[in-house]
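Suppose you are handed only these lines of text.
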Amino acid sequence: MGRKVPKALRPTRCVSRIEMIDLDELERQGIRCILFDRDNTVVPRDSREAPRAVLDWLASARAHGMRCLMVSNNSHRDRVARSAGELGVEGYPLALKPLPFSVRRACVACGVPPEQTVMIGDQLFTDILSGNLAGMETILVRPQCDTDLPGMGIVRKVERIVVGDAEFEGEDRR
Ligand SMILES: [Mg+2]
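From them, the structure of the protein bound to magnesium ion can be written out as follows.
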């Protein structure tokens, strides 16, 4: 990532996929709460279901004693709750990412301070920015598929410029 990228947009780490994040390592770092985005982070936008590997990773995170919360900008409480339930986690709707207040409230509601929380997502300008502003660790993952919401093309282009040639763990240098 280029040197001129503002701190608030710099993820702590870049990892190719959420399920490649080593949970023992997070635990050693003192992380006790995992907040994550839904679309293209755990559920590909061209699918209705999370891949088996992601479900296994989430189950393992819970087995590590971590609180797992899906934080969504979606305002439909029941839809977010249903989707989170399918993943076996709690859901937090209307997160208003990139504003930091709601994501902060989400972990504090679990009794975990932001310094012991990691925010994981596929978008710099919502997921990573909100986590950084809230004082959390942040992990940027690659979008699970190329399908995005309409109008996202320009955002992704800017993202690509910001992310530049950053190395993603679990990926061969291309
Ligand atoms: Mg997303």
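What can we learn from it? Strands lie at 13-15, 33-36, 67-71, 90-92, 117-121, 137-141. The two ends are 15 Å apart (CA to CA).
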